[in-house]
Each structure stands twice: as structure tokens, then as C-alpha cells.
Amino acid sequence: MITTSHNLNNDTLCKTVFFETFGCQMNKLDAELSLGLLQEDGYKIVDAVDEADVILFNTCSVRQHAEDKVYSHLGALKTLKKKRPEVIVGVLGCMAQKDGEAIFKRMPHVDLVCGTRMFSRLPELILNIRNHGSHVLAIDEDHIVNVKRAVAYRPNRYQAFVTVMRGCDNYCSYCIVPYVRGREISRTIADVKEEVQSLVSNGCKEITLLGQNINSYGKGLPGGVTLGDLLSELDDLAGLERIRFVTSHPADMSRDLIRTISRLGKVCEHLHMPAQSGSDQILARMRRGYSVSYYRDLISYARELIPHIMVASDFIVGFPGETDADFQETVRLMEEIRFQNCFIFKYSPRTGTKAAGLKDDVSDEIKRARNMKLLELQKGISLEENKKLIGRVVQVLAEGASKSDTNKLSGRTRQNHIVVFNGSLDFVGRLVNVLIHEATDLTLFGTLTR
Ligand code: SAH
Ligand code: SF4
Ligand code: F3S
Fold first, then answer.
1. What are the residue boundaries of the TRAM domain, all occurrences included (predicted)?
2. Could you tell me where in the chain the CATH 3.80.30.20 domains are found?
3. What percent of the chain has pLDDT over 70?
């Protein structure tokens, strides 16, 4: 649906764009694709809103805090828009999809609201606003995203994210994603392979396949295609060195897939497989579709077949009805599994989800305390695990200058550790061996070795 209303006249040629993105990797990739399209349309990307003719926010709705941040950024643009009414302000992505028309009501200086499936038409939508001087609402749910990657704006030549499926059919009771991203749609293996091949021809060494629920890749495609089939096909591509995939859902993670990963040389030894809670009772209310013992067994199986595999998780604290005893079970699971790292979130009710009907009965103070407790616990575990690598040689894909020390390089191991090491920029884009001599909970430090 594209609807127009309200007036704003402007003949100026808008050719600079400021773009800020919030939310998950999927959103970041959509931002990259959008910027690719805009660049192809003649836009120059600028770093400051004051220099921009078009200001776009790619938004997230997963927690209230994410939305508040965008609304506050938008509010701050009111004065700029008064001074320069010809500037086009747009809201894209998940919050645009969720709030739609309501965004214009709350922020009348917004010109464009473009949902999760319409960004491929951005240049045309912006032109529409310029030519007709009216608000544009584009939140069609049936539109199928199909962006030619060849035009994509890519910040790192050696690594790329590739969307292999969009949407999510899981409907975990707390989660807004299925409502804003729609039903699962997988791209065909041929389509993904073609994109990866063109990235590899362009110098890309490592790809990360993206899907909200990537283990159910292939559902709906003819011939019973699975993620294992896709990984096997990509593993054969000459020139590609590493393959990663996120995010794994425990209920859809088959043992068959673990076996496939164990025999594919390019698939990295890293799983992001959120547990969300260590309490069966909470997992059931979250509608996650697995028990703690099922999760535990899955990790044991993966570790048995892929000895150096690292597992990362997400946890939500303060889900409705979470008692101290439930929380202690989460603590126990964390202590037992010893994740590489974890993202911890305080439960945030999302209107329209199943859990929004439950009383948000854990106080913010308790949520905060539980959050802190898990963060501290994980920090200690990450530090201990990282220290075990001191004295070892690890393989790193050199990504570029380190952000904290530009005289050094940074990169990642196959298990997804961040490594900072000495070396000249000539090494960027190469797989190198690094001897680790120091470790914090977040970073390994080392020197190049043979
Ligand atoms: N598709 C991924 C990620 C979804 S969103 C997955 O299924 O794992 C990323 C994380 O945000 C989730 O793993 C969950 O831990 C958290 N999250 C989602 N909805 C939330 C909510 N309403 N409140 C707090 N955290 C939430
Ligand atoms: Fe949300 Fe669950 Fe889907 Fe992940 S699997 S996006 S948490 S509904
Ligand atoms: Fe947020 Fe949308 Fe990603 S709600 S987590 S940006 S799919």
C-alpha cells in the first residue's frame, strides 16, 4: 500500500542522504542494501544531519527502549525541519511497519514511513515526496523484497552478510518480529549461491547467512531443501574461506544439521543459539518449543562432533511470572554451558504479542538486578574461556585497523573471538595465524606468527 496525504512543496534536487540504523544484523544489511540503491540513484552518503537533504532512520521495535530512541532522534529534527522544510525525513524498518500512519500523527514533520518490505523502492518513494509534496506511507505486507546485491554499498570488502530468508513463523510469545517482518520466505539456493559467488568474485572471503530463524531455511521451497543443503553447496565455492549463519533456534536445530556442519570445512565453529531462559516453566510460557534438557543435550551433541565449537546465547530476564527460582535455573544453565558470550535483555512488553496479555509483574528493579547478575557471571566466564587461548595460535581473518588502536589490526577467529594484533594494512583481507598472549572478556591480543 502506498498512500499519500498532506502538503510539502519542493523542487530542490535532494542528493545527499544521512542514514542511521538501529536493531539487528538483518536491519543493518537492509540499510546496506538501501544505501546501495540510493548511491546508484546518485545520492552521496553524509555523516551529519546538517549536510543531508534526506534523513533516514532504519528502526527496530524489539524492545520499547529501541523505539524510544528513534522517537527522541525524530523529535530532535523538528527544529531542523522548520529551518529547512525541503529536507525529507523518513522512518524505515520494523517500527515503520508496526506504527505506520501513527508515526505521522506523533511526528508530523516526518515525510516517509517505509516498512520492512518496501525499502527496495526507496528512490522512487523519495522522488514521489519531492514531486508531489506529500507524506508517503509504504507498508505493503505482500511486497516481496528483491534487491539486486550487485548494487549494494558494502563497508567491508572481505566480509558480507547475505539474507537467506526473511520473516519468522515462530511467534515466541514475547516477540514482535513475526508481526513486523511477516511470514518466513526463503530464497532459493541458486539465488543465494549467485549472490555469494558475485561477492566472492569481488574479494569477499567470509559470509554470514542471515535469517531470524535460519534453521527453518527452505520451508516452502520445492524439493525439501534445508539449511544443510545450502551450506553444502556454498562450501564448494572456490575462493570463499568461511561461512557463518545466524540465528539458530534450538527447536529447529536438527542433529542432522550439526553433523553436516561438522563435515563442512568452511562452516565456522560458532553457533548463536539463544536459550532465552533456563527454566522450563518460563520457556513454555515463552512458547519456545523446547525444554532445558533438550537444549543441554543439543549443545553436548554439537560439542561432541565439533570439539572447538563456541556457543553464544540471548537471555530475557523478568519475563512475566519469572520467580527467583526460575532465575536461579537460568544462572545454573549459564554456569553449566559456559557460553562464549551472551546478550541479556530485560523483558519489554510488546503490544499485540501473546505475552502482552500477561501481567508484567517483575519490577524494573528486579529486572535490572537479574540483568546485572547475568552480565557479571558471563563476563567472568568469557574471561576464563578467553584466557585458555593464551599461548595458542589461532587463525584470524584480518578485517582492518583496530578501532581502539589504529596502529594494530583486528579480525576474528573461526569461533568468532575478536583478536587485536600487530601487523600492517597489507594483511587486511588475508587469513593469518596469530599467537595469543593476552585476553580480556571481549578481546584476544596477539602477534602475527607463521
Ligand atoms: N531471531 C532471533 C533474534 C530475535 S530478537 C532469535 O530468535 O533468536 C533478538 C533478541 O531480543 C531475542 O533473542 C530475545 O532475547 C530478545 N527479545 C525479543 N523480544 C524481546 C522482548 N519483548 N523483550 C526483551 N527482549 C526481547
Ligand atoms: Fe522472535 Fe522467536 Fe522469531 Fe526469534 S524465533 S524472531 S525470538 S519469534
Ligand atoms: Fe529489531 Fe526488527 Fe531486527 S524489530 S531485532 S530490527 S527484525
1. 387-450
2. 159-386
3. 95
Domain with CATH 2.40.50.140 in the chain: 393-449
104 lines ligand 1 (CB under 6 A): no
In angstroms, the CA 198 to CA 245 distance is 19
Nine-digit cell at 388?
A: 585458555
Contacts of 348 (CB under 8 A, 6+ apart): 62, 63, 64, 65
Q: Which residues contact 413 (CB under 8 A, 6 or more apart)?
A: 394, 395, 396, 419, 444
Residue 91 CA to ligand 3 centre (angstroms): 14
Give yes or no for a cis peptide into 247 (omega within 30° of 0).
yes
Work out the number of other CB atoms within 10 angstroms of the CB of residue 109.
17
Topology given in CATH for the domain delimited by 2-138: Rossmann fold (3.40.50)
| Residue 400 region by backbone torsions, left for phi larger than 0, else alpha for psi between -120 and 50, else beta | left
> Alpha-carbon distance 121 to 145, whole Å?
9
| Rg value, the chain, Cα | 23
Q: What is the pLDDT of residues 236-281, one digit of tens each?
A: 999 999 999 999 999 999 999 999 999 999 999 999 999 999 999 9
Q: Which residues line ligand 3 (CB under 6 A)?
A: 23-24, 26-27, 60-62, 93-94, 176-177, 180-181
Q: Cell numbers 539474507 label which residue?
A: 163
Would you tell me how many other CB atoms lie within 10 Å of the CB of residue 268? 23
Closest-lying ligand 3 atom to the alpha carbon of residue 26 = 3
Say how many Å lie between the CA of residue 12 and the centre of ligand 1: 42
Q: Is the CB of 249 under 6 A from ligand 1?
A: yes
Architecture label for domain 393-449: Beta Barrel (2.40)
Give every CB contact of residue 76 below 8 A, 6+ residues apart in sequence. Answer: none
Q: Using the 8-state DSSP alphabet, how is residue 30 labeled? A: H
The type of residue at 278 is: G
159-386 homologous superfamily: tm_1862 like domain (3.80.30.20)
Residue whose CB lies within 8 A of the most ligand 3 atoms, among 94, 97, 145, 183, for a mutation test: 94
pLDDT greater than 60 at residue 157: yes
Amino acid identity of residue 26, one-letter, is M
Hey, what amino acid is at 388?
K
Residues of the chain with CATH 3.40.50.12160: 2-138
Residue with the larger pLDDT of the pair 157 and 380: 380
